[in-house]
Specification:
Blueprint lengths: L16 H11 L4 H6 L3 H15 L5 H15 L2 H13 L4 H8 L7 H15 L6 H9 L7 H21 L16
Length: 183
């Protein structure tokens, strides 16, 4: 059940409007998670700033979607799983890699497996990862410093998943083909 309104640019609080306009321009539509976050400009602005920073980092689009989809599954958020499954496929990830992540397994692509493994470990262990976890990540071709981009992905995923789970945010028709529920 939807517990909060989905704002449009016109109905949103005044301090949410500029960010909603920018997000709508970036995506070509206004995702329901952002329309929900617009209820509070503090959340929306914090999310948008972190989102922009993450998307300006060193990872390519498929690597970003690997992280965001793994986070969504690990956090158990149907809205973000559907959205990031859709975006991952649109960005060129194989259906096999997307499906592996959706069922809680590692993707077959080694770099994606390294990303998926470290982000899942960071979430499940609440940051208390082992040297072996970090070694698996760096062995996948990443620098130790890139783990901080992984942490940024967890932050934005947590904001989106917590918002949509709590608010009962509906999944857009665009994402429904990738609907998902926790096992």
């Amino acid at each position: 059940m939807q517990n909060f309104p989905l704002h449009t640019i016109e109905s949103a609080p005044e301090n949410s409007k500029p960010i909603l306009q920018a997000l709508e321009q970036k995506f070509g539509f206004l995702p329901n998670v952002m329309a929900t976050m617009a209820n509070n400009p503090v959340l929306l602005n914090g999310f948008a700033a972190s989102f922009g920073s993450f998307h300006g980092g060193s990872l390519d689009e498929c690597e970003k979607q690997t992280l965001l989809l793994t986070n969504a599954v690990t956090i158990k958020c149907p809205w973000t799983v559907a959205a990031h499954s859709t975006f991952a496929l649109e960005d060129g990830m194989s259906e096999a890699d997307v499906n592996a992540i959706r069922v809680g397994k590692l993707p077959a692509t080694p770099k994606y497996a390294a990303l998926s493994s470290i982000t899942k470990a960071l979430i499940e262990k609440r940051g208390n990862v082992s040297d072996a976890d970090i070694e698996r990540f760096t062995s996948g071709g990443y620098s130790r410093e890139q783990i901080f981009e992984v942490i940024t992905s967890i932050g934005i995923s947590t904001m989106a998943a917590t918002t949509t789970n709590m608010a009962g945010t509906p999944i857009e028709d665009r994402f429904k083909a990738q609907s998902w529920s926790a096992a």
